[in-house]
Amino acid sequence: MAFNKSLAGYFDDLQHVGIPTDDLDKTVAFWEKLGFKMTGNFDTDDKGNQVVFMSYAHLTLEIWTGDGAVKKTGAINHLSLNTSDADAAYKAAKATGFTMKETEVQHLDFWDHGIKFFNIEGPNAETIEFCQIVKG
Fold this sequence. Notes:
By secondary structure, this protein is α+β, with helices and mostly antiparallel strands. The protein has helices at about 25-35, 85-95, and strands at about 15-20, 35-45, 50-55, 60-65, 80, 100, 105-110, 115-120, 125-135.
């Protein structure tokens, strides 16, 4: 399937890689042993689920509980591309004909001012997220 249009210009880099886990402490310890440092830790619901962000150099991981770990090849849940305007990127993705996984841009209370994001589906059913960390 070829697209006539592109989303180039609506993102500037890889933002993070998303990995669900059943054992947050064990997973954090594993990545710390590789040299990653925890840069964020947030509650995601009223059931005790959490999301942790870990960074090393230019790579950030989003690791969370509540969705269940796959525990086989394919365990990475999504790749996130950094965008400075999730609303504009959403409109462009929809107009370009990508398969949208949400009907609108989503919002979460991570970081100081929250995030805005949406997901598209790739040709192998992979999830590609466009994520904006809201500034001020």
